[in-house]
Request: fold
Amino acid sequence: MEMIKADKLIFEYEKRDEEGNVISTSRAVDEVDLDIKPGDFIAILGHNGSGKSTLAKHMNAILVPTDGSMWVDGKDTSREEHIWDIRQSAGMVFQNPDNQIIAAVVEEDVGFGPENLGVPTEEIWERVEESLRSVGMISYRHHSPNKLSGGQKQRVAIAGVLAMRPKCIVLDEPTAMLDPNGRKEVLKSVAELRQKENITVILITHYMEEVVDADHVIVMDHGHIVMQGTPREIFSQVEELKRYRLDVPQVTLLADELRKRGLDVPAGILKKEELVNALCR
Amino acid sequence: MIRDITIGQYYPAASKIHMLDPRVKIICTLLYLISLFTFKNLAGYVFAAVFLAVCVRLAKVPFKYIMRGLKPIIVLLLITVLFNLFLTPGGEILFTFWRFKVTEQGLRTAVYMTIRLIFLITGASLMTLTTTPNALTDGLEKMLNPLNRIKVPVHEISMIMSIALRFIPILLEETDKIMKAQTARGADLESGNIIQKAKAMVPILVPLFVSAFRRANDLAMAMEARCYRGGAGRTKMKPLIYNRRDYIAYAVMAVYMIAAFSAGRYLPFHVWIF
Amino acid sequence: MSIRLEHVGYVYSEGTAYQKQALKDVSLEIPQGQFVGVIGHTGSGKSTLIQHLNGLIKATEGAIYYNDKNIYEKDYPLKELRNQVGLVFQYPEHQLFEADVLTDVCFGPRNQGFSPKECEKRAREALEMVGLKEKYYAQSPFELSGGQKRRAAIAGVLAMHPKVLVLDEPTAGLDPKGRDEILDQIAFLHRESDMTVILVSHSMEDIARYVERIIVMNQGEVLFDDTPKEVFSHYKELESVGLAAPQAVYIMHELKERGLPVFTDATLIEEAAYEIMAALKKEKEE
Reply:
């Protein structure tokens, strides 16, 4: 069974006037099909306003499709009775680290999800400890979130989701507001999670360097999926990506530049080592 | 600077006071405040001071930190002192100052009032310094639970309070930032009469409200995403259960109340006019 | 308008538990018209430094001179200074507040005391400079997209006709195209006018591409102050203070280690490509 499946998913935002009449609708997600298998690491790329965040919010039933359907772990998100199961099995981390930490102490925040699920007290403590440990934040358990760096706050947010024991974690531009070091911290935590817990990861971002390890990359533009494939397949199409207001990793750009100058380097180089090896045969 | 305000802040430490049940701290703080108003002589205040000092010591909160909490109320203290000093009639006139007469009663009230206020603020901030805002609201929620029966949404109120407490520092910082940004655009926030000053606040308040709404919206979404659906069916990570130390604390408090009350009223302990 | 900082130091919340030395003995000179990059990890003092430049923060030690006049002298017109030094904060769109874009951009010039007509003229010019189309002028700033809001906010500062433009991470949170567009626009402005531009950024690639001089801040002190090539040749030291060099620098060093005779001073992709081609050609000839 797919972890996440979408079938011709359409979502429209409605703009209303003061009396509540719909004056216009705009389509944020347009006929999107998705098949995400358990344990996959999927990256969704797209410029600001391409519909990628709107799509992400469907995976947690924060939004439900205007038309078409979305299933998370086999459950239809438009069915009211599944909503809490879906939110438990697909956890979500948002962009702004300040606006998703609810409690004034790190460990209490991580416990917030399990509390809502009605987990017995003793087990909450176990889960909190385990989750904080797996993102490397255990030594900050008694700290106030206000005193943490951006990267640390995002790791706390990830721990908060982990404590709900999800099968899948959706990260909606988790690094957009962080500095390079914070970004590294968060990505390291995510990578470790994948190794240890075999959790499905859906990473939404517009930093190209973050997606080179993904199993599958999806590119969105104007609510459509316009490209998909392995990172190598995607990043070998430099010009097309630029058309969608995106970019490629620096190394890929350099390889592309060399190819344009007539050098025989393979397309879709993603890592420094690959390029160096190709050049120093 | 705004960031210097310590009232309502939590000071993390591993102390006996920190470990107490928040209900104990709320009730004992209330009792302590009441005790301050029963004293008729200096002995009571000495007693209360010793008790407070022991509590501060046990709480492992640096003395300097507590003192800083008193800074914002200095003006209030001064006003209280002046009013009481000059405007309380009764007793022997100690000295006259221009048209004001300072009476024995006035001096006494002024001094007592100041001590009371200082103890009151120190006591209350000791409670907030040693109790996380969440624990505090948890305590209140549990204490007010009976009100649920008369349809008071106790859980919701306490959730609102704890979120408000968490976001106060964030919004203060944000205000600071917006003020700086608008100053950089030439906004003049200081000069002018009241109307001009109020007008000058618009470029600060509008962005602040917009940001607060955006944050509220984000937070609501984050809470929903983590399965929050009100108080029903929720368990607690830190349920409030009285421990042995909580009963001990109540016992100590009871002893203090009796001792302070009797000392403050009946112990013949006087220094000069106090 | 030349800027000179002499032994500037700044201590936060002096005398409290939070006391912190945010700047330590910073001495700098920035001549008019330079394009300067400031880098440093979060908490290195770079934000504090730029807030000193228009007098929002007053140094606790040392002095700052604009055109050889000390801005801390008693009758120095600080308000005038703020008109000349435009400061664009991080996420500047968070300070938009008027009902429409044009009026918001007029806020700066209005505070400078210009007539409504002049304000509008300046606002329109500024909006054009940042490349925001006229159809957006009458819209509410809150209805614009992220990139457009950012432009409107930058226009709000440009409309004051600053001689020095300081930008604190102007591209944070934007998509790759949005990042390039904003920076290209700023570079264009710098070329066309004689404006000094001071750019704070976390992206070493952007810094390498646009600026002629880099100031590296670490723990409140200036660690390096030199041309990009010179600064990035110290990539190991940069790493030890939580920074990095552009990717190209690492690739070139690795190639050299593996025996390809490249010069390692390339910081841009185009330069790196050029260097590699040249090295390969040389290798073939030998």
